[in-house]
Structure prediction request, 301 residues.
Amino acid sequence: MSAQRMTLESGKSLGRSSLARAARSLRLAGLIALAIPLSGCGTGALWDKFTAKDDTFNEEPADKLYNEGLYLMNQRKDLKAASKKFEEVDRQHPYSDWARKSLLMSAYSFYNAGDYDSCIGAATRYVTLHPGSPDAAYAQYLIAASHYDQIPDISRDQGRTEKAIAALEEVIRKYPTSEYANSAKAKLEGARDQLAGKEMDVGRYYMERRDYTAAINRFKTVVTRYQTTRHVEEALARLTEAYMAIGIVGEAQTAAAVLGHNFPDSRWYKDAYNLVKSGGLEPSENKGSYISRAFKKLGLG
Prediction:
C-alpha cells in the first residue's frame, strides 16, 4: 500500500488520541529544547537569571530622592541626572507634596541645562496640576523664559518670539504682584523689539526695491504696535521717505512732525526734516492721521 493511501485510510482513525499524542510530542520536544541549554549551564548564570525574582523596581523614600536630586544639581552640577531624580519622585510618589516640589525642580533643572522643550513640558504640567500654588508664578515664568531664550535673529521666522510674548503677558496678567512680573515686563519689551526689528528688516527690503506700498505697511506696523521700541524713530523717518516718494505728502509731513515732537534730537528726525523741506514743505501733524493717533493713544504725542 502506498504511503499516500496509508495516510488517507488512517487519517480518520487518528482522531483526538493521535492529536493528543502529537501535542504531547511537541510539548516534550519544546521542553527538551529548553532543557538542553539550561542543562549545559546547570545552576549557572543563565539558570539564575531565569529563576531570579524581578527586583528592578525598588521604591525609595520621596525625600531621599528629592535630596539626591538637589545634591546632583547643586554639588555635582549634573543637571540631567538631577532631573531624572526629580522625575523619579513624581513617578514613585505621584500624590505627595514631594512630587509637587520635584516637578518644579525638574523644570528648573531642564531650563538650566538648556533643554527648553522639556522645561516647558514640566512647567506647563505644574501650572495645570497646581494652579493655586505659590510657585505657579515661577513655573509660568519658566515657560516664558524658555520661549524667550530661543528667540531667533530677525532674519528667521519669529514664531518663537510670538510664543514668548504670549507667555510673558500671561505672567504679567495672572501674577501682576509677583516678583517675576517686572522681569517678565523687561523681557516682553525685548521680545517686542525683536518683532519690530523683523518688520523694519522686511520694510527696508521693499524700500530697496521701490515697493513703497509694501514698505509702508511694514513701517506702519512698527508705528502702531511697537511705539515703545528703539525702531520707531527709523520707522517714522522711513514713512516720511516712502510717502514723499509716492506723493502722499500729508502723511509724510505728519510722520516727520510726530518724529520731531517725540524725538527732537534724533538723527532720523534730521533726515526726515530735510526730506520734507526738499519738497518745499514743513513738518505738519494731521491729528486725524493713524500716525498721530497711535502716539496719542500712548500719551506720547
In short: Residues 155 and 212 are 21 Å apart (CA to CA). The longest helix spans residues 3-41.
